[in-house]
Amino acid sequence: xxxxxxxxxxxxxxxxxxxxxxxxxxxxxxxxxxxxxxxxxxxxxxxxxxxxxxxxxxxxxxxxxxxxxxxxxxxxxxxxxxxxxxxxxxxxxxxxxx
Length: 98
Description:
Layout: H1 4-27, H2 34-42, H3 56-65, H4 77-87, H5 92-95
């Protein structure tokens, strides 16, 4: 019987910690930009900075916000530019900036 009390105390503490963590994960959830994630999946992932941004995640976020045009990714080439312009709802003229 003496062992039952510590087992119950540890079980209750574990249950409370689980509930607190579950609530915290819902309250502190960071919203994700689905368009930026889709654009990042299309990019080659070289993170070379040839587009003028810090890497592929930065370039994808800028395209999703409308701050960058598709077609700046040198390693991706024209095929990536066309797919990015389709995801970002750009026309083909803006996919290849001069």
